[in-house]
Amino acid sequence: MVRRAVAIPKAAKNAFVPPSQRKQVFLPEFVIALARTPFLSPRYAQFRVPLNFNKLDLRDYLQNAYNVGVVSVRSYIEQQPITRITRDGRNIGAWRRPKAQKRMTVELREPFVYPEEPKDLSPWEKESWDASEKWQAKMQQGMQQKSHYAQEPDADARKAFEEQAKELKKAPEEWRPSSKALGLDLARRLSVRTGVKSEK
Amino acid sequence: MHRSTVSRVAQHGVSALAELPPPYLAPSLHFSKSRAPIQTSSFSTTSAVAARRGRDMNRTRGVSAIHGTGPRFPLSASKYPLPKPVSRDQMKARPSTPNHGLWGFFPPTHEALSTTEYDAAFGRPWSVQELRNKSWDDLHKLWWVCVKERNRIATSNLERSRLKAGFGDHEANQRDDAIVVTQKTIKHVLRERFYAWEDASRLYAKGYRPQDQDSMEEAALEEMTPAEDPFKEGSVKETKL
Known about the structure:
The complex is a heterodimer.
Chain A: E1 33-35, E2 44-49, H1 55-65, E3 70-78, E4 83-84, E5 95-96, E6 101-108, H2 126-144, H3 146-149, H4 155-170, H5 178-181, H6 186-194
Antiparallel strand pairs in A: 1-2, 2-6, 3-6, 4-5
Chain B: H1 3-12, H2 15-19, H3 116-120, H4 128-132, H5 136-163, H6 169-206, H7 210-223
């Protein structure tokens, strides 16, 4: 919907505005995250902030939104290493540098200890996650080594055959056709349907 | 002159020279007859004039933090014993601070990261119809609730990826998306109000005065007969398509 803008009435020129109200943000859209810093004392807390953030922004934000007193702020921007764009699970894309990260470390008036790491990771299903990661990595490796894939022995299949053979040796069963082993007597069904008895 | 010769002379006296080969065979092992004057200089390059005479007035002369000399006279803090370092295991736990503002970055259970179940248990985003009835103050408060929740989710995500804790990324993203929808709805409602204000100010600039209009409408309604009332039931003609 395109509309003709109407001028918003402004405050009178030369009117005094207190410094705390000169940069008012009513509906902030940025997100900041508190990072764990075991190498720092509880007097310090580190935040991941957007790149356009400055120290005064963070101090005012923490004071007004979270009621956290801040003594001092230090900041640095961490440049990210150059990587390639992943395509088909292979790093064959164009080279590019990911967006840099800005971190700000504040000195707190009241010390704050970051909560401990959870010891039991079952709520996040750590085991199955690890298994899926492993499987995915293996599949990717298989994709990458496609040229040699056929020449190399299938270790998993060999192992499976070996185990099956061992089990057969342990408890030798009488061989039966799979139709009988699975309970599908196809010959009998056929005779019932057609009325012709198969030769014995 | 060769150093070994010198040491031999020093040890065995001049008689050692007699055992040396004759000088025409090994001239380097013998003193030369005509010795050249040797140019010498002292090791110190400071001239005697520049050297200090007696004590200066510096009381901390020779006190070094690097060499650990210690102070030359007791300091005011010397009467207190030095604190001894304690290993990390024997350190006392810090008193908990349940009212610290930074707990706002964590779930209400005060855990480092929220569980998958907690992240998945959320309702629906606010709808436009619901938010149209809210005042600016209410909308503003709701916006800040959304902002804080998004910060909390970002903190949890950071910690989960650092720990490699496992699943939970999808649930967190779903929750985040619902919050973003609420935020967009708030902006939508505010935009509607702004447009209404724009229209009203434009009408006002044209000379429209609602109080006059209301009285005019009332007068018009009074004049209107019931049959002409357009809002009466049954007066709307149905159009067949």
